[in-house]
Design a protein that fits this description.
Number of domains: 1
Helix content: 55-70%
Number of strands: 0
Largest sheet: none
Structural class: mainly alpha
Shape: globular
Strand content: under 5%
Oligomer: single chain
Order of helices and strands: HHHH
Distance between the termini: 49 Å
Length: about 100
Amino acid sequence: MKSFKEFNEDNLQEIDFQKWLGKTLDRKLNSKKYAKAIRVYLDWRKKHPKQGSMGLSKAAGITGVDIKQLQSVLHQMIDAGKLPKHLATNPNMLKKENVQE
């Protein structure tokens, strides 16, 4: 284990790259799981329109995907225009140019 003094900017960039790579591989390898989780979330929202965050956690639990990753995938789909904006669980995660005032 490196001491705190030995960490530098290159090490932090390497750690960020490793996190990005892990997230990207997870999305690519488990794309069918994420698609199923989005479907479960959409079905949940039909029955419970005001409970987006709870539906997201239920969908993640049922399908076995990471809730933060699922939320990120959901908001990327909303940003791309594949899903309506009212399905967002956290409007702060949407791109600013897409948010209506």
